[in-house]
């Protein structure tokens, strides 16, 4: 069950998607379905949610989303480039108008000096070429990192849609 802020953001994203007539797809690594769950917790989300892929392992990122293996080798699975490739892959897979992808290190292990636990990349890609990616460093334990990632992802998608609407008007 999503907390109040997450539910509020998911509802707002649904409202913006519905108003614009756009569809959404998600690709999740470290959140493993929490983002899709938050989006679909809103009644009527089937009108705008096309689907999602949980690509937890690198092989799933490669085989399901078309992320180039050499990109993962060169940049690491938790990187701007891989997050954007995941978003582009799921956008194409579901033929959606907007895609969100998340990849990160929720912990407690797996971090490094350059990519400590809590490091998360969120990418939003829109049909037509808008590409947006942000790196976050969330404090707290595994569940806190995963929850904050979902909230940040929802906000990022809302920002892209609002910017797109403002530029289109």
Structural key phrases:
single chain; 169 residues; alpha/beta; five-stranded mixed sheet; 6 helices; 48% helix
Strand order in the largest sheet:
2-1-3-4-5
The number of helical runs is 6
Strand % is: 15-25%
Mean pLDDT: 95
Outline, from the CA principal axes? globular
Helical content class: 40-55%
The helix-strand sequence is HEHEHHHEEEH
State Rg.
15 Å
Number of strands: 5
Largest sheet: 5 strands, mixed
Low-pLDDT segments, ≥5 res: none
End-to-end separation in angstroms reads: 36 Å
Q: Structural class of the helix and strand makeup?
A: alpha/beta
What do these coordinates show?
It is a single chain. 48% of the residues lie in helices and 20% in strands. A 5-stranded mixed β-sheet has the order 2-1-3-4-5, sandwiched between helices. With 169 residues, it is of the alpha/beta class. It is globular. It contains 6 helices and 5 strands. A hairpin with a 4-residue loop joins strand 4 (119-126) and strand 5 (131-137). Helix 2 packs across helix 6 (142-168). It has helices at residues 4-20, 34-40, 58-65, 69-75, 80-94, 142-168, and strands spanning 24-28, 49-54, 98-104, 119-126, 131-137.
């Amino acid at each position: 069950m999503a907390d109040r802020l997450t539910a509020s953001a998911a509802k707002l994203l649904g409202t913006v998607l519905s108003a614009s007539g756009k569809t959404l797809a998600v690709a999740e690594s470290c959140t493993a379905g929490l983002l899709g769950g938050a989006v679909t917790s809103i009644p009527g989300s089937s009108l705008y949610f096309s689907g999602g892929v949980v690509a937890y392992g690198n092989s799933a990122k490669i085989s399901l989303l078309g992320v180039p293996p050499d990109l993962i080798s060169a940049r690491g699975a938790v990187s701007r480039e891989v997050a954007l490739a995941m978003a582009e892959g799921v956008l194409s897979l579901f033929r959606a108008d907007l895609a969100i992808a998340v990849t990160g290190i929720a912990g407690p292990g797996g971090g490094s000096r350059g990519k400590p636990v809590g490091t998360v990349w969120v990418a939003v890609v829109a049909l037509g070429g808008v590409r947006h990616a942000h790196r976050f460093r969330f404090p707290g334990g595994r569940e806190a990192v995963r929850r904050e990632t979902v909230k940040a992802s929802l906000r990022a998608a809302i920002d892209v849609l609002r910017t797109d609407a403002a530029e289109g008007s």
